[in-house]
Every structure is written in C-alpha cells, then in structure tokens.
What we know:
Elements: E1 7-9, H1 14-24, E2 26-30, H2 35-50, H3 63-68, E3 72-75, H4 83-89, H5 92-102, E4 109-119, E5 146-152, E6 164-165, E7 184-185, E8 193-197, E9 202-203, E10 214-223, H6 232-235, H7 238-242, H8 246-254
Parallel strand pairs: 1-2
Antiparallel strand pairs: 2-8, 3-4, 4-10, 5-8, 5-10, 6-7, 6-9
Amino acid sequence: xxxxxxxxxxxxxxxxxxxxxxxxxxxxxxxxxxxxxxxxxxxxxxxxxxxxxxxxxxxxxxxxxxxxxxxxxxxxxxxxxxxxxxxxxxxxxxxxxxxxxxxxxxxxxxxxxxxxxxxxxxxxxxxxxxxxxxxxxxxxxxxxxxxxxxxxxxxxxxxxxxxxxxxxxxxxxxxxxxxxxxxxxxxxxxxxxxxxxxxxxxxxxxxxxxxxxxxxxxxxxxxxxxxxxxxxxxxxxxxxxxxxxxxxxxxxxxxxxxxxxxxxxxxxxxxxx
Length: 273
Ligand SMILES: O=C(O)CCC(=O)C(=O)O
Ligand SMILES: [Fe+2]
C-alpha cells in the first residue's frame, strides 16, 4: 500500500499535530499561512528571487552543488529580508511543535536556518536525507534535535517538485534508505505547510514541468546548545577578522563545518574577501 501523508487543518490543536508528528515524522497542515502572510512573503521575496541566479555560488563541499540543485534558487538570511518571515517564525503551531519536541532537551531553541527554495523546470529530485544528519557526530540515541516546516508559496504538485517524504522513517535505523513505494510527495496548495522532524527522510522533488517554478520556504528550530559559548560573530568585528591569519578566521567560525555555519547558502570565507 502506498504511504499516505496525514493532513490537518491550520486550526488543528497543537497536541494533535504533535501526536501525528511523533507517529509519522511528517504531516501537511492546510492553510498554515494566512492569505496576507502568503502575499507578504511572495511580495518581499519576488524582487530578491528575480536577481538571484540558481545554484550555489560558494559551495563548502563538492556534494553541495548536486544536493542544492543547479536549477534551484536558494536564498537564506530571510529574517532580514522579509518582515512577514519574522511573523511566520512566531506561528503558534510552529512554536508549539518546537516547545513539545525540543524544550525537554534544552533551555530554549534557536532558529537554525530558513531558505527560500524555488525549484525550476528540469531540476532532478534531491537525494533523500535527514536534515539532522548535519549533526551526525552526536552519539545515538540522540534527542530530537530539529523541527521544521516547509511552507508552500506556490502550489506544490507531484510534477513541479513537491517535497518527497518517507512517513515513519524517523523511527527507522539511521542507515535504512526508503524504497520507492515508501515515498510520498507533499502535494499542497500555496499557503499550506509540511511540518516534519529533522529525523525524517525527505528531499525536494523533480520538476518535470516546462515552465512552472515550485516556490517553497522552510524554516526550522534546533536545540539551543548547538552553538559555541562565545558569540564571536558579534564580539569580534568583521573588519578586525579580515586581517587575521586564515587559521584564526577558521577557528572563529568563518569556515563552514560542511553545511553548518553557511551564509548565502555557501562559505562564509567569502565575507573576508
Ligand atoms: O525543496 C524541498 O522540497 C526540500 C529541500 C530540502 O529538504 C533541503 O534542501 O534540505
Ligand atoms: Fe532537507
């Protein structure tokens, strides 16, 4: 039997949403954004998308180029680019899910990353992955590390690249991959969202259309202790860092740890010229 993805309405209570997430690792929440938020996000991001080329300008590792896609536009730094984004960060359902899954393991959680992901025609399917694997060095059994939501800013269809997900895979051994019959696409209308745990297998779908762009925006929260004690990015001015030895720049955090610590979805070393 093909897997199915549970669907809830945006008015669902958070306890129900958390129950389904615990069981399936992923769930579609219909009308998660208000029409005003949807319009606001698209309005804020249209201009930036129009001047952003697809692909990754400064990959931190070779694998990143294929993983992020060569016909896909990705934009981060969203809290500074859209006021509506900061409103969505505070969505009661999103914060409720973060409270439920993360607060048992930390004093408070942190914004991990948010990306606008616009998949263009011809893009191939992204490799299925668990976002939490960026913290693969944490020994098992590990607590919930990350919760996320992918908001559809255009309709998500099977043909235009709706996110692929393997419901239940958050409970699998970490090396188990999904068979095609275990994968379902999160088809949904613009304004709906796929809520998912960082431990569930998922990935962007292939865009098999001639001219449709699939516009999504995800954001996630992580355990608040996934950081250094000193916030060197604020305590050591960028201007001062520029003239320091490269190794010191790296130790201060300007070298990404694989996909962690990126800026403009790529290497922060580019900020240093
Ligand atoms: O674009 C999508 O639907 C998913 C993207 C994703 O999972 C990622 O880049 O980590
Ligand atoms: Fe992902």
